[in-house]
Amino acid sequence: MNLLSLVIANREGNIQIVGWNKVEAVYQCKIPLSQAISALQLGGAVAKDKIFVAAGNIVRGFTKKGKLFLEFDTNLAEPIKCMHVMGGHLLVAGMNVFSQYEDCQDAGYYVSDDEITSVIALPIEKVRKLMPILACTDRTLKVLNSAQLDFSVNIDGIPTCLHLMFGDGGELGTDLLYGTSDGKLCLISILSSEGYLRWTLESDANAGVTCMDFFDLTSDGNKELITGFDDGTIHVYAIDPENYQSVSPRLIFSHCCNESITGVQGGIFGHDGFEEVIVVTYSVMVSALLGWVFGLTTETTDKKIRVDDGNFSISEDTRQKLIRLKNEIEELQAKVVQERDKYQSATQGNQGGYSAVPVFAMNEKFVLNREDASYLLTLEVESPIDTILIQSDVPVDLLDVEKNAAVVSFSQCDPDSGNYLLVTFRCQANTTRIEVRLRTIEGQQGTIQAYVTPRIQPKSCQVRSFTIKPLSLHVRCHAFDPNRPYNTLQLKGHFSVAEMHSWLSNCIPEMPERAPASGEANLTFVSSFLDTLLHCAYSKGEAEFKSDNVSTISILKDCISKEATKKKIQLEIDCDFNEESVLHTLQLIRPKLDGFLTLSKQVSLIDVLKEIQAHDPDVANVLTPEYRHILTNADKLRATHKRQPSYLDRLYGMITDLYIDKHKYNGINVKSKVPMLMEVLDRHDFNVLVDFFQTPAHALGGPGSAHSHHSHHHHNQHLGSY
């Protein structure tokens, strides 16, 4: 099999075609473009030997020798984010607009309310027609026909990457693989009018899927699935070719490079006869302005390194390679020193010196993890990071992240000045990526700011801001259960659909990018912490919201009232409180409360049990199953408990808010009863808690006063007093 050439493009606008001359990589061709490249794909009518790149609104085509043969201005209203080339068909998508072209002639467009993350089409030679498929952030796959929506497939998770099964869609060409922002891999069959989910594979990467490829890495005639994740993990999965629709893939190889993966490709590149995985990462080499590229090979290293009588010996081929690498590193180091000296002399000279603030690219993500209702803040820089300072003007819990190799320092904050968190991460050498896990409190609205300082001269810093919305733990879902006890909020007034859409976008995450073109919207959200639902239905001048958690309705009412007041729009507000919803929400909180209390009790017993075991090693034989479980899983229990600081306060805060909101709709202020509620909670008896909730406030004793429905509800402000 012939060795392959690589085509690599980067955000600086450079395309490079790289070959291999048995011992080292050789640049066959370099093509500089003036714009950042957003998409790269191979295509061609017969063999896939043409290079297509998208930059801005323009798609360019190059031969494998680097000769330009196509420059096509799509006239797309947005910069191209993703592209798919199939024969004479060109599919491109920006943030919300999709366009398709046939032989460079416009063949239609489609506007999505939600952001488009990826685009692909089923193989025409198998399905006999062009079927573009769009992955969208509203957790759907949109299947198009003649550039119009044919049907949508609801999926669990935000799709980030699409790839045809085995690269050709499987036997019928209808099998599509997609990856999600929370690390799931799913196989779906696109049928004539619906999508059928075959299987879902949970990965342990706990990061978004960024790229996929299929290649036979084991030389058994069957293709393996190669997957890249944005935390730097590469997975290789074996797939049963006969039963791939019913049997999920099996992990056979894993590697982590601690930098976000932007591309993976299987092939034979460096050594003839040995299959390899070529990987491109986010970071940029200063010398070549090229993303780091490395290979994982199936070639064994035993033949290159031998051990005889305790002495290591390496092959001549490997020795020469090491010498070349050493020389290259020395040359780069000398060049860096030379440029640094040149810069220093220019800035310190007497002839009107100059100083330039270094520009560095940064890749940041702020993603809600539905599994544990926490946000993962990821910051990645092309140069090693020196320090990261994180500041928040809303209360948040900082959770432990095991991957972080950084020294964490907390500074004292004054909440009265709007500063609830100030923490510094001092990174170890060569750290280019850091993860911070945070848990927010619903009802609080504000901003988290990250100040990132890399190890470059002169010192410079970039700031990134991330908005915390009042209903920050809610995510989009597709199922609405009509049988729950719902509280209802109805609003009427002189507002447009776009205004209501804008108000909700300031309150709830994962709202569509655009207001609905139809003039009516029906959206459902689920709380990632409690699994309560929120249904939003709105049109011009009317809006109705339903939730089985009265606190959600209370937050939404306060938020929309505030936004309407800013616009000087009067609202007619009607709230229908359902008493049954309170017990329903308490029942949803109960398993979390019982589970954490049990965990806390188990952790408190670990030291005592270990001390007993130290005196009597055979004591485990006479212990109850519960105590044996605690001893056996001591480290795991402690780690789980450590990852959940302030978890009990969070649950107590939700229960307190529920109690306050329950009485708020009856016009009673029960904040004076909160200490009594704390006493009840500390008894750890759910039945007593239910009785407390069902007892009228006036029967509990203590002062109570009228409380206006329109006063602002400062959610969870009392949390720190427990």
Automatic annotation (TrEMBL):
Coiled-coil annotated spans: 315-349
Residues in BBS7 beta-propeller domain copies: 6-298
InterPro entries the record matches: BBS7_GAE_dom (IPR056334), BBS7_hairpin (IPR056335), BBS7_pf_dom (IPR056333), Beta-prop_BBS7 (IPR056332), WD40/YVTN_repeat-like_dom_sf (IPR015943), WD40_repeat_dom_sf (IPR036322)
Keyword Coiled coil tagged: yes
Keyword vocabulary terms for this entry: Coiled coil
GO biological process: cilium assembly; intracellular protein localization
Pfam families hit by this protein: BBS7_GAE, BBS7_hp, BBS7_pf, Beta-prop_BBS7
Protein name per UniProt: Bardet-Biedl syndrome 7 protein
Organism: Orchesella cincta
Taxon lineage: Eukaryota, Metazoa, Ecdysozoa, Arthropoda, Hexapoda
